[in-house]
Amino acid sequence: MELRILRYFLMVVQEQNISRASERLHISQPTVSRQLKDLEDELGITLFERGSRTIQLTEEGQYLADQARQILALTDKTLDNIHKEKDISGSVYIGSAESKMIITVAQSIHHLREIHPNILVNMISTDAINIKQKLENGVYDFGIVMEPFDKTDYDFVKLPGESSWGVLTLNSSPLAKKEYITLSDLEHLNLIISQQNGVRNLHQIFGLENENIHVAATYNLLYNASLMVSAGVGDALTLDGIINTNQSDLTFIPLKPRVTAGSTLIRLKGQRLSKAAQAIWDQVKSDI
Prior knowledge:
By secondary structure, this protein is α/β, with parallel strands linked by helices. Helices cover about 40% and strands about 25% of the residues. The chain has three domains: about 5-80, Winged helix-like DNA-binding domain superfamily/Winged helix DNA-binding domain (Arc Repressor Mutant, subunit A), CATH 1.10.10; about 85-160 and about 265-285, D-Maltodextrin-Binding Protein, domain 2 (3-Layer(aba) Sandwich); about 165-260, D-Maltodextrin-Binding Protein, domain 2 (3-Layer(aba) Sandwich). It holds the Pfam family HTH_1.
């Protein structure tokens, strides 16, 4: 299975049409079709549902597409870091939770790129589950996670600052008139909660019993959750400083007593970093 063929395959998946994919790849349509058929024969699976006007993946095809994206991302990152100039250069991948404490890492990246402008940082907004997986697979160099987080297998740097938990609600909601939300108030709401924390961790973080929690939906990125709040699905339990509520139909109300969370920059213990990634790690540590 050649990397070149995987790139052909992903282009067809992206375009959902072999003709458009072949134009983007600057090769003939019969060549693309033949390469994909050879790939199916090599793997012994069917990648596409035949007979539809647009390309539809089979279950096996979808799995291969997901794996191919990771394989090619890791390959491109590795080649980028190998073929670097004498100056420190290369790509660094950081999977990050949504947090206002990311500003510390952003400032360190700025300071470092003033000296080494050929460092390219790729910041991917995601959740802790994805971060752990991609760190273990070598796709991400670092992760930025919210506490609490089990750091047994990681080297880490705690980032300055903290965020406060609260509720994102509609301006028209009766909650919007409150100065703060109590923990008992949460038991009467249809909550939209983070997939990372889940119902299990609501007891750990807030002392709430599972049977008293009414979960309407979950999210991994708060922007999507804010749209659900706007649509009236429920009220989002979240951290402050992520969604700008100015000139919107939403407002953030903090919890009382105040419940806070910090952010941590992590890397796998024993992982060998590229020079670019090591430079960022060292810069963040020196800036704190």
